[in-house]
Amino acid sequence: MEYNVTSISSTAFTINTVSRWLNYVLAIPMIILGILGSILTILVFTRQSSFQRNPTIIYLLAGAIMTAIHLPTIYLQSILVDGFGLGIFNTNDLACREHNYLLYATTVAAISFPCWAAFDQYASTCREASFRNRWSSIRVVRAAITGTIIFWTIVYLPMIFFSGIDHNICVLTNIYYRNLNDFIVTPLVYTIGPLTFIIIFTRRTIQNLRAVTLTNRRDHLTKQIRHMLIPQLIILALSGVPFGLQNIYFNLTNDVYKDSLRQAIEHLFVQIIRLFYHFNFVFTFYIYLYMSSEVRKVLRRITTSSRKKSIEGSNTDSIVLQTLTCDNTSRDRLF
Predict the structure, then answer these.
(1) Which residue from 140, 151, 54, 76 is spatially nearest to 112, judged by alpha carbons?
(2) Angle at 284 between CA 283 and CA 287, to 5 degrees
(3) Under 8 Å CB-to-CB from 85, ≥6 apart: which residues?
(4) H/E element holding 72?
């Protein structure tokens, strides 16, 4: 019996070590890549006039901005807790409330914008001109983005009041709200909603494209945007299923006794699911870069422009330094 207990503890320790190393080896590089990618997405999409006028791109730009907020404020906190044992939101009540609120509000807002982009692809390919002009316009995009942020900001306000620390873990303390969130809101928002939205509007977009051939000078860019969006939507749909179901599992097994081995295994799966789900936030820019020659062209232009400015700045400093040296030399000769 003592041997079994020792063996279980040893196995649990090994699994917990693997969980920590997932944060060291994968999560930290993913955060760096994700933040860099979101910044580059913002730069690329705001430097090209054709991008600025495209409703789908504006939705994706809003998603990149939300990602730039989510990764350092939420995902980084989780890595500090699970990888380095720095229990920020597990030891401070205010940090716990802030973490839970921003966790849900920023995550759901970020995954909403690719869904809006899927809808815009359907609207922009619709055969009815009145429908296209009404729903695929910059005015509608701005209203949808503003409304989405306000909506999720209000929906998740109870997180601030119903979050707290229980046994050194940041949890939802109100059982009724926790059940509502775990069994209804989270599966609907993270799994059922995005899957339904993506399937319906992607299918209708394909039907529209088969029914009519739109020929205009923006066709090339439109096809590239579609190629950029589809892989992102596939990742979003696939990763949302396990992420949406994990809360249901933990809620149902909340009162079940779990030894150290089971806790370690569950914690490892949480780390893996969280890593997989954050593919949505980390790799979107690199999908855009691979799928679109327009994105690569704008990025090269930005890089070249920055390099030229750096060289010009160095030359200017050199000229100023030479001028000062000559002036000092002339002054020395006068005296």
Answers:
(1) 151
(2) 90
(3) none
(4) none
CA–CA distance, 271 with 24 (Å, rounded to integer)? 12
Please, which residues have CB within 8 angstroms of residue 18's CB and are 6 or more apart in sequence?
268
Which residues make Cβ contacts (< 8 Å) with residue 316, sequence separation at least 6?
none
Residue 212 to residue 128: CA distance in whole angstroms: 11
Asked if residues 40 and 293 have their Cβ atoms less than 8 Å apart, the reply is: no
pLDDT of 153 reads 95
β-bridge mates for residue 164, sequence order: 171
pLDDT of residue 213: 53
Exposure class string for 87-110: b at 16+ Cβ within 10 A, else e: bbbbeeeebbbbbbbbbbbbbbbb
How far CA 172 is from CA of 166, 176, 256, in Å, comes to 9, 10, 18
Dist. CA 105–CA 87, nearest whole Å: 21
Contacts (Cβ under 8 Å, ≥6 apart) of 320: none
**Integer angstrom CA distances of residue 284 from 8, 48, 164, 271:** 40, 18, 33, 20
Model confidence, pTM: 0.83
Domains of the chain: 12-291 (1.20.1070.10)
**DSSP character for 283?**
S
How far apart (Å, rounded) are the C-alpha atoms in residues 70 and 87?
19
- Report which residue type is found at 96: C
In terms of DSSP bridges, do strands 163-165 and 170-172 run parallel, antiparallel, or are they unpaired?
Answer: antiparallel
Q: What is the pLDDT of residues 194-208, one digit of tens each?
A: 889 888 998 888 888
Between CA 89 and CA 96 the distance in angstroms is 4
Q: Is 167 left (phi over 0), alpha (psi -120 to 50) or beta?
A: left
